Amino acid sequence: MSRPKPEPVQVVKERRDAALSALVARVPYITFMGFEFERRGDELTAIMPYRPDLIGNPTLPALHGGALAAFLEVTAIMALGWSLIWPRMEAGESVETMPALPKTIDITVDYLRSGLPRDAYARAEITRAGRRYASVQVEAWQDNRARPTVQAMGHFLMPELAVAS
């Protein structure tokens, strides 16, 4: 019995990148805020490129807390969305059959230090993901990942997934 020949690496990368682009395109706010996402395997890193209009306190100057909170919330939602489509995408399903995105129940943001006028990065860790509910912890940093700028814990309502018959 012979195993099927694996797909070429470039084909796999293109499929995954197309799925991430389709997922990001479903949230127009991501484009409005200029957030970006980088993919390494199944792990996502969110990037909030610095723009002068993101400054909330020009005296310091410091990034606006609302922009940072939105960055963390979007990062959590994208991480959950990515975790939902990853197994389907790897099974060969089309990106058009993506499930709905999770909805925020609540999010608690801890501001640890002032956001400097430079790029910010974030990663989310899904601490619990059930059929109805998920908990996600998100951390954002700027120059040093060991010194986070802001972190959040969010709870999300998971979408109902269609069961294949």
Show the helix and strand layout:
Layout: H1 9-25, H2 28-33, E1 36-40, E2 43-48, E3 55-57, E4 62-63, H3 65-90, E5 103-111, E6 120-129, E7 133-141, E8 150-157
Antiparallel strand pairs: 1-2, 2-6, 3-4, 5-8, 6-7, 7-8
Write down the secondary-structure element order. HHEEEEHEEEE
- What is the number of E strands? 8
Structural class: alpha+beta
The overall number of domains is: 1
Question: In the CATH hierarchy, what is the class?
Answer: Alpha Beta
Q: CATH topology, anyone? A: Thiol Ester Dehydrase, Chain A
| Inertia-based shape | globular
The CATH architecture can be given as Roll
Rg (C-alpha, Å): 17 Å
Q: What is the terminal-to-terminal distance?
A: 29 Å
Please provide a written account of the structure.
- It contains 3 helices and 8 strands.
- By secondary structure, it is an alpha+beta fold.
- The protein has one domain (9-157): Hotdog Thioesterase (Thiol Ester Dehydrase, Chain A, Roll).
- The chain has a 6-stranded antiparallel beta sheet with strand order 1-2-6-7-8-5.
- Strand 1 (36-40) and strand 2 (43-48) form a beta hairpin.
- The longest helix has 26 residues, at 65-90.
- The chain is globular and about 70 Å long.
- 25% of the residues are buried.
- InterPro entries: HotDog_dom_sf, TesB_ACOT8-like_N.
- Residues 62-156 form the Acyl-CoA thioesterase-like N-terminal HotDog domain.
- This is Thioesterase.
